[in-house]
Specification:
Length: 216
Amino acid sequence: MQLDTYLRLIDKELLPYIQLTSESPFDPIIVKNQSKSWKMIGNGNYAGVFTHHANPEWVVKVYGRNPKELQKEIEVYKKLGSHDSYSTLYAYGEDYLVLKKLEGITLFEAVVNGVPIPDSVIIDIDKGLQYAKSVGLNPYDVHGKNVVMNNGRGFIVDVSDFYKQGYCCKWDDLKKAYNRIYRPFLLKYHPPIPFFIMNWIRKGYRLYRKKKKGNI
């Protein structure tokens, strides 16, 4: 499918039929999708992600919160250019991006479903983050829900906060948990971890970091 045709499908069959709302800045956007031809495949704190059967190799990321952040994400993708650890930006509109689809499951999903996360995934992400730093970006808000793995390779699917300043400890904390807990106790015989437990850990970690930051 030609890019122009794809963009027309976005304008005519996607944007008029979706509603994105937010109840909390700390939880994912709520998406109501009434489009008959577009399927939602994910949602994060800023946007919903959609795909069309005519071109499953592309996705559309539609912003539902803080649309000014979209321009910053565009600049991030321009700086990243082409790199194995990241998606590629093909086009953008007033409130959406057209990106290469990165196949795989998130690390969060892998733990919930009992799918082993090999060392190679962690190594790939480290290399990708180092590359981002080398082009003047600051890898920020990298965690188990915006990193995916596929066939033993790791990819970073959300770079929307890479323009921010300061140090974000989420990826370093995840690696500590991987090396100290996951690798020695879970990797070889990986049982599924119920979603409610993982969600409780996620929320507990957020509260812990918030409290620790307040005590500094």
